[in-house]
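Quick one, tokens below. Sequence please?
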């Protein structure tokens, strides 16, 4: 048997993996950035083949990874976690530095970053695995706590987007508690659940300028569960 809940106990960090150049840059939130060798220091990351950033890594032959902190704003989470670089310029209005290879490095909510030149690309079916040699690294602000997948799931109530390597398709729980008049509303963009019973405020009562605490979209993007 496979109990998929076992997978939620594997520890991961959360990072913004970016590539491209000054004219055309993109990035996405990834939980798969890990060091594979120490001398030379090599890192691997996985990116869905449909991700725009995958194309840019192949073109630029380099990528950066910014280590995120737990104070990440819904705006930054929404842009890098739940929007496509085919639709918007994600680097617009972000704090960007360009690395030795020319790739963008996102400094919003960044504890530290690494920059790698691409040395190998492995076909993993749905994803590419990119392996890069570190050419540059810096600490930006180590006073904050690094964001982990566990923190994202448990404290921020986030879920894995469908493009993530860790996305698990599970049957929905359709159990209805008939004694419960509270409703749940789901964000169509990021999957965040607003649970009236937990929040103590009905969704209706929330002010018009209320935003999804995870991805920053407004109330109109929510549907009743
Ligand atoms: Fe959302």
């Amino acid at each position: 048997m496979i109990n998929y809940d076992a997978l939620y106990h594997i520890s991961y960090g959360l990072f913004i993996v970016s590539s491209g150049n000054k004219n055309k840059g993109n990035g996405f939130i990834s939980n798969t950035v890990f060091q594979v060798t120490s001398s030379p220091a090599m890192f691997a990351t996985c990116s869905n083949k449909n991700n725009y950033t995958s194309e840019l890594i192949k073109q630029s032959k380099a990528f950066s990874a910014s280590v995120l902190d737990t104070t990440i704003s819904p705006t930054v989470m929404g842009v890098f976690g739940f929007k496509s670089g085919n639709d918007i310029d994600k680097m617009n209005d972000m704090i960007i530095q360009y690395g030795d290879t020319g790739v963008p490095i996102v400094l919003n909510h960044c504890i530290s970053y690494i920059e790698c030149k691409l040395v190998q690309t492995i076909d993993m079916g749905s994803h590419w695995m990119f392996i890069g040699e570190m050419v540059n690294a810096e600490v930006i602000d180590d006073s904050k706590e690094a964001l982990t997948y566990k923190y994202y799931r448990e404290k921020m109530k986030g879920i894995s987007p469908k493009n993530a390597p860790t996305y698990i398709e599970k049957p929905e729980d359709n159990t209805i508690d008939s004694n419960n008049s509270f409703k749940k509303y789901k964000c169509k963009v990021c999957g965040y659940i607003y649970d009236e019973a937990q929040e103590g405020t009905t969704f209706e009562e929330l002010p018009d300028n209320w935003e999804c605490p995870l991805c920053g979209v407004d109330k109109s993007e929510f549907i009743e569960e």
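The chain has a mean pLDDT of 92. The two ends are 30 Å apart (CA to CA).
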